[in-house]
Structures are given as structure tokens and as C-alpha cells.
Amino acid sequence: MPSFPSNAVSGQKPLLVLIDLQNDFLNTPGLEPHRESVVVGAAQLIEAARGRNIPVAHVWTTIDPKTDERMPHWKEQGILSCVEGTPGHAVPSPLIPKANEPVFHKTQFSAFSVPAFENFLKDRQLNSLVLAGLHLQTCIRQTALDAYQKGWRVCLARDAVGSHDPLHGALTADYLEDRSIPAFHHEELFALLEGKETVPVPETQVGEIDRIISIVRKAAPVWQKESRRVRGDILEKIAHLLDKNSDSLAHLIVGEVGKPIFYARGEVKRSSALLRTVAERVGREDEQRVEREGLVRYVPRGIIAMITPWNNPLAIPVGKIAPALVYGNGVIWKPSPVAPKIALALFSLMREAGIPQELVQLVYGGTRTVRRLIASGSDAVAFTGSLQAGWSVLAQSAARLLPIQAELGGNNAAIVCPDFDLDRASETIVEGAFGFSGQRCTANRRVIVLGEIYEAFLDRLEAATHNLPCGDPRDEKTRVGPMISPSAARRIAAWVERAQQAQCRVVSSRATSSSGGNDSFYPPTLVCCDRSDSAIVQEETFGPLLVVQKARDFDEALRLLNQPRQGLVAALFSGDKTMQQRFFAEARAGILKLNRSTVDAGVDLPFVGWKYSGYGAAEHGEANRDFFTQRQAIYGM
């Protein structure tokens, strides 16, 4: 949990401020995250604040056409939104103010443009603000800066802010954090508001990052003089050590992130396979090639900044570090704060295998550390994480024109056709959806079923879901254990509640009793949703939810498959050659699978996300050389 900056909310007399969470703003095209995600986050925030007797204030943009006090750019662009008395001026039902909660009406960006708002703060002797709402780069930013200037402590509710310009929004969040206006997730936020003592996440400071970069910069040229064969042999040694320590590593993964031991063992095995595959491939590749006009060389990029997530704390780092090293680069790695022990274990094994001590370095922290690392002299950035975090990484990398490899998750779907074995398809999809509680970027998030088999297949999905072993992640039989945190489980519960309010059919597993009272556990759940524009269809929920969609025919199935903005993995369950050919021709995803779940991927084919699932170079296989080296043309040879 982050430490508290001097200007952040201190937990004494805070006010939750909800800004512009009105239908006209929530319906803005391109809103990131989806409107329902923002509403769910804000609703959770309001409920938690009310339960803690933290006062809540609502700030709305209110336009009266008679007086027309719109901002100049609205007038110039012909924008007429949030007109008093219209549906667009109202807020969604979960965000309706209570009778004792004031509503302040503004026509400008900042809440402080309304004198009554500042008077309310002074009259109630409130000393800090928690801001949520829209849009991050305009009204949230201006209110935050005005509060900062006037001496109030202020922070943002990360789970309840959004922007129709997400790149600008990410830059704004970074800008504010650097001015001691941090953003916290709900769980962190309320611990701080209640004055609970928190354990700060270790944060590598700017000067230390500069020193580390200097160390790696000096070590890299020495490493580059080693032959690729020598580098590949060291990767083989690391793979051997992973195999030798596989049991202890698997249990370490279970202990830190709650991954069931079955999947943890698979992750260790995949990690050693990645190392061996990279070593074998690089032995087949030429370091240069002769062209008619000269030579083309593949030159190491230099220092690779790596930012990795918690859900595959061993395999994802290995998949990046192995090719970075074998192609002659140095590495500075920022692992997830959730899994520091696994990072240290891998770090130790690399040293034991013969990786030079100075060549690979660890740094620690959150978003601020990431920004420092990117800004301080790295030569390329390899990132895996959420789209929300990705916007910031993309912005920081673009500021230095750095090459980037970004894997940003997936809203993956499988189409099931009538000619396929429905029992086999249902069991395969359910395991792909709910294994490790759906906390995999390749998890099967949606299943699209042709109408003629919809009810029959839904029955099989329900049966397969109920039969999935849930419980203690240390049990070899368990496939579904706890989620990463109680807040993650509450987030999924909020998604399901919204789906039920929208009249979606919800079927939950009977596995709740297997949770053992663990408040991080959420049972595998099916959500039948016929509204293709619903957020639960369009967003990556990253939990044990499988959305079931009905398609009239194969044309509609393909349309539903491609509709979300992400495009990581898509699957088809059919033996029909015509349908297969259409699927391969029309599915808009980087990874296509036939008669298997979307989950998982090989170790020597490119791992590539289309659309919002990825940016820059792909990972693995032939894509490794494209990212971890840069081409150089030489004339006169």
C-alpha cells in the first residue's frame, strides 16, 4: 500500500466529491473506462463513505438555456449538454444523492467556481477532498488544482474516475501525482481515510534509479561481447534451475498470489520451456544478413525497462527477460508489489546460473517508479498490465520516443456451433473461463452460442460450472481459489449486481461453501446478456464471470465476437470447414484458436494483441528479435 504524501487525505475530516457523473457525460463516446465501470466504482465509493459517516457532496454541470452560461468553447462548438430537467442532466440511479447530501450546480470546470461549495467546506471544517467523476483531464484536474492552491488536502478515487481522452487522462493523473495529489484504489483509500496504519510499498527513488541505469549501462557492452551461444547456454542453466526448484517455486506462487497449485506448477513448467525455446531459436537466427546493397545487422537495444503484473509472476517476466538477455541487452525489472518473493527467487536463480550481477537489476514501487524508470534513460519498454495502467506507460514512452511492447489484456470470446460436441465445448470453455478465478489475460470471458443450441448449451455450461473444483489453492484438485484481494471480489460482485439490475439472467456456482470464509473468494458465475452494448459484454472484468451471448446465425456471431474494442484471443468450436475459413478470415484478434478455449498460449508463436489488447511489438517466437534488437543497415561492405 502506498505511503501518504504530505498533501494527501489524512483521514481527519474528508469529503467525498462526485463530479459530473451525469448521463450526458457518461454517454460521451470513447469514455475510458466504460460508463458502467465508472458508475460501479462510484456506487461502491458512495456506499463505503456513507457506511463510514464520511460526508458526500455532488457537483453537477447545470445549464439553463435561458441564461446560457455555457463555457465559451461549448458555445463555439454548439455543445448543449446537461440541460436542467433533461435525462442527460440526471445521474444513474445508484448515484442519486440522499436528502442530506448537498448538490452544487456549476457551469465551469471547477467545483470551486461555485462559492457555496467552498463555503460548505469551511462551514463543516473539512480539511481534505476525495475526488471522483468525469472528466479526469478537465473538471477533476481543475478542482484538484484549485483545492491544492487553497490548501486543502486532496486525492483521487482511482476506481471511480474516467475520461473521454484516456491518453490525456493518464498524463493528468501522473501530473497530479507528482504534485502530491495521488490516486488510490478503494481498499487503499478507505484504510487511509480511517487513519489505519498502512505498510508503504518500497519505492525506488530517482537517484537510485539513475545509479542503477548507470550500472547496467556499463555491464551491457561486456555482455554483448559474449556469443549468442554462451548467452543461450546460460538460459538453459536457468531453465534447469527452475526445474530443480519447481516445487518450491510453485508453492511460492500459491502463497503470494493465491494461484491454485495445479496452475502454479504449469506456470513454472511454462517458464522453463520459454527459456529453452528462446535459447534454441536464437541459435538458428543469423546476427546479420547480406543484401544486394550491403548488410543488415541486428543490434541490441541497450537497457530494457520491464514492468510485469502479479497474475503470472514467474512466466511473464521470464518471457521478457530471456529474449532481452539472449539478444544482448541489460534489464531493469519492476515486478508487481504483490509478488516480491517470486521476483527475488527468480533473480537469485539467474545469478546462480551465471547472469552477471550488474546486468539485471530490480526496482520496486508503483506508478511513480514506472515513470521514473521510463524517464531516466532506458532504451525500450516491455509492459504487461491493465489498459488503464497502459495509457500512462504509453504516454511516458512516447515522450522519449521509446520502442514499446505492451500487452493490455483481452475480452476473449469463443463461438460455439451446432455441429460440435457440446459437452466437450462446455467443459473446455468453463475451465478456460474460471480457472484461477478468471485472472488470466487469455481467459474465456464470453461465449457466443448459435440460437438453435442456446438452451441446450446453457444447461451444459451450468453443469460444468457447478462441477468445477473450488476451494483451497494448495489442494491439487482445486481449479478456482480466492481472487487476489477482497476488493477484487467486491468488484466482481458489483458487476453481477449491475447485471441483475439490467434483468440479465445470472447463474452462480454452488461453490460459495468452498470459500472457507475467505472474503477474497467469488464463485464462478454465468451472466446471460442479450444487450451487446452492455458494459459486462464490452469490458474485461478479469474475474470468474463468463458472459453468455445468443447469436441468430454465424454472421451475427462474428459481429458479436469482434464488437469489443479488445482483440487478444478468439476461438471457434466447429468442424465445419466453411465456418472455420470465415472465422480465420474475419475474426479480429491476434491469436485464433480452433476447438479449444481461448486460455493459454504456446511458447514459440507470437503472442500478439490487436486493437486495444496490445501496442507495439508482439511477444515470443519470431517477434522477440523484432523488439529486443534494432536493425542497422551498413553500406560499403
Largest sheet: 7 strands, mixed
Helix percent reads 40-55%
> What is the general shape?
globular
Proportion of β residues? Answer: 15-25%
Rg estimate, integer Å: 26 Å
Helical segment count: 22
With strands numbered from the N-terminus, the spatial order across the biggest sheet is 16-17-18-15-14-20-21
Please state the average pLDDT score. 93
Uncertain runs: 1-11
What structural class results from the helix and strand content?
Answer: alpha/beta
First-to-last CA distance: 56 Å
Number of strands: 24
Give structural attributes.
637 residues; alpha/beta; seven-stranded mixed β-sheet; 22 helices; 24 strands; globular
Describe this structure in words.
The chain is α/β, with parallel strands linked by helices and 637 residues long. The chain contains 22 helices and 24 strands. The strands form 5 sheets. A 7-stranded mixed beta sheet has the order 16-17-18-15-14-20-21, sandwiched between helices. Strands 3-2-1-4-5-6 form a 6-stranded parallel beta sheet, sandwiched between helices. Strands 11-10-9-12-13-23 form a 6-stranded mixed beta sheet, with helices on both faces. The relative contact order is 0.10. The N terminus is likely disordered.
